[in-house]
Amino acid sequence: MERTPSFPPATPAKKRGSTGLLVFAVFGFLATLPFLFRVAFPYFNMDRAHFGAYGDFFWPRRFELIAHIATGTIPLLIGPLQMWFGERMQRMGLHRVLGRIYVGSIAVSCSLAMYLSITSPNGGAYAMGLFGGAIAWGLTTGMAVVAILYQNIQQHREWMIRSYVLTFSGFVVFRVLVAGLEALSVWGIGRDGHIQRVTFAVWASWAFPILLMEVALQWKRLATSSPSLALNQPQHEQPQY
Predict the structure, then answer these.
(1) Other beta carbons less than 10 A from residue 217's beta carbon
(2) pLDDT tens, per residue, the chain with 241 residues
(3) How many degrees, rounded to 5, is the angle at CA 38 between CA 35 and CA 41?
(4) Which alpha helices (H) appear in 36-91, and where do they start and end?
(5) H/E element holding 207?
(6) Which pairs from 144-153 meet CB under 8 Å and 24+ separation?
(7) What number of CA atoms fall less than 13 Å from residue 173's CA on the CB side?
(8) Phi and psi for 199 in degrees, rounded to 5?
């Protein structure tokens, strides 16, 4: 009597995803919520008093600023979900839909950031910092789109991480830096001190985070590269003649 071959019981597919990136996604989402309620949403009251120290800078361009904040809020909220779904390989249909919304929102918010920079009364250093951050934001997001069009998943993943880092740092880290410097009275009080603080923050809020993220991405690649692994392989003896 012929025996039927037996197979091991099926096991559920293993979930993919970097634990560090998943933790970063959760942290980013939780850190965004107080920023939205304490900083972003008050601008929508259309009351000059809510602009605080920024009233002189942005009140004449309040509609453009509010549109920039509104469209920038969307990728702030979508970004952690995209990283979670992408890393866990879940709800990929929704992942693609949210990805289109993410990219479209950044395109609008980035364009408005460039407009706000070239019309800024705060001086060239501040304007160039804002403009440079917007360029980096648009380029990293655009490269993520190009990578997925070429079906390069790893490159798409890395460029999306860079894009979200710039999204988060451009809004949340910027305001944390300004508030921290102001609390410490760095560069004094008054208008001149505030301009110096926001000028430093607008550069530091995107240049340092993207540099640190790049080091993290490349470090992981170096640590797992095949040449380094080859150093641990036993060397075969050369034949002697």
Answers:
(1) 15
(2) 444 444 334 333 345 568 888 899 999 999 999 999 998 998 888 888 777 667 777 888 889 999 999 999 999 999 999 999 988 888 889 999 999 999 999 999 999 999 999 998 877 899 999 999 999 999 999 999 999 999 999 999 999 999 999 999 999 999 999 999 999 989 888 878 888 999 999 999 999 999 999 998 888 788 776 554 445 545 544 444 3
(3) 90
(4) 55-58, 62-88
(5) helix 191-223
(6) 144/103, 145/103, 148/99
(7) 21
(8) -65, -45
The owner of tokens 């951050």 is 133
Contact 209, 169 (CB under 8 A): yes
Look at residues 167, 157, 105 and name the one whose alpha carbon lies nearest to residue 136: 167
Residues 6+ apart with CB under 8 A from 89: 15, 16, 17
User: What whole-number distance in Å separates Cα of residue 115 and Cα of residue 189?
Assistant: 28
Instruction: Give me 226's structure tokens.
Output: 């095949």
Do the beta carbons of residue 199 and residue 125 sit within 8 Å? yes
What the block records as the tokens of 19 is: 């634990």
Nearest Cα to Cα of residue 201 among 223, 220, 186, 217: 186
Tell me 184's DSSP state: T
- Give the position of tokens 């972003």: 40
